Every structure is written in structure tokens, then in C-alpha cells.
Amino acid sequence: MADRLLAGKSALVTGAGVGIGFEIARRLCAEGARVALNDVDAALAAASALRIRDEGGACLPLAGDVADPAVVASLVDDAAKAFGRVDIAVANAGLTLYGDFFDYRPQDFDRVLGVNLRGSFFLAQAAARRMRAQGPGGRILLLSSVTGHRAIRSLAAYGMTKGALERLARVLVPELSPFGITINAIAPGATVTPRTLADDPDYVAAWSRVTPLGRPASVADVAAAALFFLSPAASHVTGQALVVDGGWTAVGAAPGVPPDDERP
């Protein structure tokens, strides 16, 4: 294990029961990190952690809703108790609630902001406090989206939160840098996950038509970008946001594609 990229490191990944979060957790374990895998669904967290352990990874399931700052603090505490320290925190948990702007409900707005913004902000805070106390340094990664870069119908609240996460990565640079803590963001575009395939069985074909590189991202594509930010290779990179979208934000949707189909 000593020759692995993240040997000796400990990480917490939220919203990692499935999809991008799961693949990030899996890749971190494959590189020698010990990972606390969080999901709001306790059974899913346990099953996903078991899958990683079956591959030889050191993975601990932790259930909890990150919209509650007290839960977030307990996740960081539990990871630190299990592993002795927390070197890496990935705020992957996020919620997408589509809705027409004119009819968007306050309860949906509050729920999206609670998970996407409050959950990410207070995870960064709790993890940074732990990293500052234990030293030296640490890595924090926020999961944004191309919806923070381009307007997409029926995703006003969601897109607002994702744009805010990239700004959060920038404004925390002066707060965290004195302690050797880097903070960055990744903005995935259309990505093939169980959720996106369930929402649209034609998802791969539809997004292949409008993505310059000819296909939507895989979870492995996004996890590879995450691994860079969380590795020693990115020790001098902070406050940045990396778009992983096959070039989609450079050109937008192809002519003739209805706006309602623009759903990464």
C-alpha cells in the first residue's frame, strides 16, 4: 500500500452511495486512502461500503442527511474517530429538484439549498476545523455542475446553488491557505449514472448528439478529475473550478434540441 497515491490518508465523501460519489470513494480507496462513505440512505451506504471492501478497500459507511449541520459535524467526528484524522473531504451530496420558476415552491427551494449549500458549507467548515487542529494541511473538494455555468430550464434553484459552490471555493482561499488546506470544485456535465439513466433511458444517445467529444461523461471521468485535486499533484492548486463536460459548455446544445432536453 505504501506506493499508492493516497496511502496513509483518510477521507470523507458525502452522498456516495451511488454514482459520482461512489466512484470517487472507490478510487480513493484504490489509491490507499481509508474512506468514510456517507449517504442519507443507511442501507445504501452499508451496501456500497461493502462493495468497496470486497475490492480490498478500507471503507466505513456513515448514514446521515447533510442538510443538518449537526449531522455533518458528527460525520467528520466519526471519520476522525475511526481513522485518527481526516485529510480529505468531498462535498458530493446534492439534490436536484426540477420546477418551473413561476411555480417553484418554497419548501423545494429550502430543501435544495439545505442539501447543496448548507451541507457543503458546513462540511467544509467542520473538515477544515479538524484539519487545522490536526495539521498539516488537507484537501476539500466541492461538486458543482455545468448548471452553474449555463442556464437550463427548470433548474433555477439548483443552478444557483452550483454556481455558489464555485464561488465558495474561491472565497475560502484566504481562510484556509494559512493552514495548508486547499479547496477546489469540479463541475460535471451530463454524466451517466443510475439516476440519469432512470430519468431518461435515451440519456446516452441524447447527450452524445450534443457533446463535442461525442459522449456524456462516465463517473470514472469525473472521479479522475477529483483524484487530481485530492492528490499531491495538486498541492499548489486552490480556489479553482474544473468543468468536466466533454466541451458542452463551450458550444451549448446543438441547434434544434429542445431546452427541456438540456438536463445534465
How would you characterize this protein structure?
The chain is an alpha/beta fold and about 260 residues long. It has one domain: Rossmann fold (3-Layer(aba) Sandwich), CATH 3.40.50. Helix content is about 45%, strand content about 15%. Helix 3 (about 70-85) runs parallel beside helix 4. The model is unreliable at about 255-264 (pLDDT under 50).
Q: What characteristics describe this protein?
A:
264 residues; alpha/beta; Rossmann fold; disordered C terminus
Reading off the top of the CATH hierarchy, the class is best stated as Alpha Beta
Q: Fraction of residues in helices?
A: 40-55%
Strand order of the largest sheet: 3-2-1-4-5-6-7
User: In the CATH hierarchy, what is the architecture at level 2?
Assistant: 3-Layer(aba) Sandwich
Overall mean confidence score, pLDDT: 94
How is the CATH topology named? Rossmann fold
The rounded Rg comes to 18 Å
Total strands: the figure is: 7
Q: Which regions are unreliable across 5 or more consecutive residues at pLDDT < 50?
A: 254-264
What is the helix tally? 10
Q: CATH homologous superfamily?
A: NAD(P)-binding Rossmann-like Domain
Give the biggest beta sheet: 7 strands, parallel
| Share of residues in strands | 5-15%
**Outline type:** globular
Order of helix and strand elements from N to C terminus: EHEHEHEHEHHEHHHEH
Distance between the termini: 36 Å
Could you say which structural class the secondary elements and strand pairing correspond to?
Answer: alpha/beta
**Number of discrete domains:** 1
Structure described in brief:
With 264 residues, this protein is α/β, with parallel strands linked by helices.
